[in-house]
Design goal:
This protein is α+β, with helices and mostly antiparallel strands and 662 residues long. It has three domains: 76-97 and 284-373 and 631-660, Periplasmic binding protein-like II (D-Maltodextrin-Binding Protein, domain 2, 3-Layer(aba) Sandwich), CATH 3.40.190; 111-264, Dipeptide-binding Protein, Domain 1 (Dipeptide-binding Protein, domain 1, Alpha-Beta Complex), CATH 3.90.76.10; 378-625, Dipeptide-binding Protein, domain 3 (Roll). The protein contains 22 helices and 20 strands. The protein has a five-stranded mixed β-sheet with strand order 15-14-16-13-17. The longest helix is centred in the last third of the chain and has 18 residues, at 600-617. The model is unreliable at 1-45 (pLDDT under 50). Residues 132-557 form the Solute-binding protein family domain. This is ABC transporter substrate-binding protein. Its main location: membrane. Pfam families: SBP_bac_5.
Length: 662
């Protein structure tokens, strides 16, 4: 696999949303400066600069005093509603052990730099702020410098320094044993594919120097791309992980054998997962005490060296502990939500169908509902493979008239009413109206249910001959059929595609459905072994990684269901895959230029050009806009906004300032 093919999945990490909160990064400025702090809560916490559970350890001499644990200038986070009580346990849930996104985004969103809570998805650096490190980017986005906060410490009390970052970048991200397929492209210069010059400037500062602009690195860090399981990261504790690295420990393979895994690389990746390895030091507000897989819940307790404070100088987080129950079914989670068992929870249960019963049980469950404006742009898109292995199907599927005819044949209203509880509007795969990249043509073309227009365009595609049963005959004389892959992870698609099947058959095109596991789905698509596939549609964002924005431009052979062969051509610089037609090549050139453009205004213009070609090409057939999701928060669980942006939610609104109490 080439370097270009090594793309990181962005599902659930998509950018966009709407602004709601003001932010600050220096002492004395309110992070959630929307209302005065509640005097009652301040009085209740008067004089307390740290949690009583930590003060007791200090008094016993088993923990250093607070001033020795905090950095020199800790970030100041003002509690949204002024509630500042220490204590309590935040109870929530994850759906099976696979749902680690809730853990990362809710309990450990602490990248080097982070999104501001009022993020809107505009290109540029204005919506990104310092977190564990201050950062600078030169005018050309070729030189990126990170300076860690002075006095920053890991949860075991050890200093966090430039050596940790240097180790993570050079010995983890760029180690050929840990990454045999090559380095991730964010660390390479786009013009050469060679590793950036990575150097230690001083004890707290690391500089990355590229030979061409690399503006996507900062936004990918803020997205939390490098906060995940496996041999990844931007900042890992060297003092802990070097024991598992062969360069630093010649016995690392023996350790792996003792642990029952193949080699040191397997053991290293295993140890780097904080949810299954509580021994790993962290910079997050809470550290794991009961690992994932060791019981019915993941439990965490406060990090005594956490490095943020509130506007009165109190160490955060306010909440002492977290308990994340592992449930096996979304309906079980829904019942627990309705029973008021969770302090704050969203994801999985927040469908339009469930909202009436969630709302009806608010008083009984003792909770409120908050809105989470979605970053998804379509409930179900259908990508018909224009690079099909079968030349007859390839020619038909690449005929735009065919795709237009199929789009007109869909009755979107009946799908919206039956599957999505009447929520949303007919919509193609396109950015929403409030996006800086909104394109009206892309969003609204070919949406109406019109059988006459459907037949007209299918005839124009050359499908004028029919079998006795009314099915249209292709160029090979066989009835036209399209087998659509549906991932079982989208049960709404399994239901919705049946409505599409009925309507397509009425205009002479047979639709066959194959509902498969998500892993098999991805395997089939990547192998270009599919007629078509459904998915949800994310939002458009630039700058991005090599494989980003694949909904609108064929950059990722694992995701561009409408043009896998084109994506392979793009990823391998023409060595593999199928040569795209001229307009698609032009779009790919514009995309490449846009993702490497350091000027935000030029990036926006290039992105609009990319989307205009997507509108003209009409890659995906969309269904409807996505209703906002929502969450619940107990009446005694405080400082949660009435709305939060879906990007890395709830991490984007600072869970460390959540508070429990009357």
């Amino acid at each position: 696999m080439s370097r270009e093919q090594r793309t990181i999945g962005r599902r659930g990490l998509l950018q966009g949303g709407l602004g709601l909160l003001a932010v600050a990064t220096v002492p004395g400025c309110g992070f959630f400066d929307t209302k005065p702090a509640g005097s009652g809560a301040q009085v209740a916490a008067a004089g307390e600069k740290e949690s009583p559970m930590l003060k007791a350890l200090v008094d016993k001499g088993s923990l250093p005093p607070l001033e020795q644990r905090l950095p020199k200038n800790p970030p100041v986070i003002k509690p949204l509603a002024g509630k500042a009580q220490y204590g309590g346990t935040w109870r929530s849930a994850m759906l099976t052990q696979e749902d680690t996104q809730w853990l990362w985004n809710g309990l450990a969103y602490e990248p080097l730099v982070r999104w501001k809570p009022d993020k809107t998805g505009k290109p540029g650096y204005d919506e990104i702020e310092a977190n564990t490190a201050e950062y600078t980017v030169d005018a050309d986005s070729k030189e990126i410098t990170f300076t860690l906060r002075e006095g920053l410490k890991w949860s075991d009390g050890k200093p966090c320094t430039a050596d940790d970052m240097l180790f993570t970048l050079l010995e983890v991200q760029c180690d050929t044993g840990l990454h045999p397929d090559g380095i991730y492209d964010a660390f390479a210069s786009p013009d050469t594919g060679k590793l950036a010059k990575i150097e230690k400037v001083d004890d707290r500062t690391v500089k990355l120097s590229y030979t061409a602009p690399q503006p996507s690195l900062i936004s990918q860090i803020a997205d939390g791309i490098f906060l995940r399981e496996g041999a990844y990261g931007m900042l890992l504790p060297k003092h802990y992980f070097q024991q598992f690295h062969l360069k630093y420990n010649k016995n690392a393979n023996a350790l792996a054998k003792k642990a029952g895994v193949g080699s040191w690389t397997d053991l290293f990746a295993q140890k780097q997962n904080p949810w299954t390895n509580p021994d790993q030091p962290t910079l997050a507000p809470w550290k794991v005490t009961t690992a994932l897989g060791k019981g019915s819940a993941v439990t965490l307790t406060r990090n005594p060296y956490y490095w943020k404070v509130d506007d009165q100088g109190r160490q955060l987080p306010y909440i002492d502990a977290c308990r994340v129950e592992v449930v096996q079914d979304a309906q079980v989670e829904l019942l627990k939500v309705m029973n008021g068992e969770f302090g704050m929870q969203y994801r999985n249960f927040g469908t339009p169908q469930n909202k009436p019963v969630v709302a009806q049980n608010r008083e009984k469950g003792g909770y409120k509902i908050f809105e989470v404006p979605t970053q998804l742009t379509n409930t179900m898109i259908i990508g018909i493979n224009q690079t099909h292995k079968d030349p007859v199907k390839r020619a038909l599927f690449a005929n735009k008239e065919f795709r237009i005819g199929l789009s007109y044949a869909i009755n979107r209203k009946e799908i919206i009413d039956a599957v999505y509880a009447g929520q949303g509007e007919a919509w193609q795969g396109a950015p929403p109206k409030d996006s800086p990249y909104y394109n009206e043509q892309l969003a609204t073309q070919y949406l109406e249910f019109d059988v006459a227009k459907a037949n007209q365009h299918l005839d124009a595609a050359g499908l004028t001959k029919k079998a006795a049963d009314g099915r249209r005959l292709g160029a090979d004389g066989k009835p036209v059929s399209v087998t659509v892959l549906v991932s079982e992870s989208f049960p709404d698609h399994v239901e919705a595609i049946e409505f599409v099947k009925k309507r397509w058959l009425a205009v002479g095109v047979e639709l066959r459905t194959q509902a498969v596991s998500e892993d098999l789905y991805k395997e089939r698509v990547k192998a270009n072994d599919h007629d078509a596939g459904t998915w949800t549609s994310g939002t458009f964002v630039l700058p991005t990684g090599t494989g980003g924005d694949h909904y609108w431009v064929p950059t990722n052979d694992g995701s561009a269901r409408y043009g896998v062969g084109w994506a392979q051509w793009y990823q391998t610089h023409g060595k593999e895959g199928i040569t795209p037609p001229p307009e698609v090549q032009k779009q790919l050139d514009l995309f490449t230029k846009a993702r490497n453009e350091p000027d935000a205004a030029k990036t926006l213009d290039l992105g609009k050009q990319v989307l205009q070609i997507a509108a003209d090409q009409f890659y995906y057939i969309g269904t409807s806009s996505v209703p906002n999701t929502y969450g619940v928060v107990k009446n005694d669980f405080h400082n949660v906004p009435e709305q939060m942006i879906e990007a890395v939610a709830p991490g984007i609104v600072h869970p460390e300032q959540f508070s429990i109490g009357a």
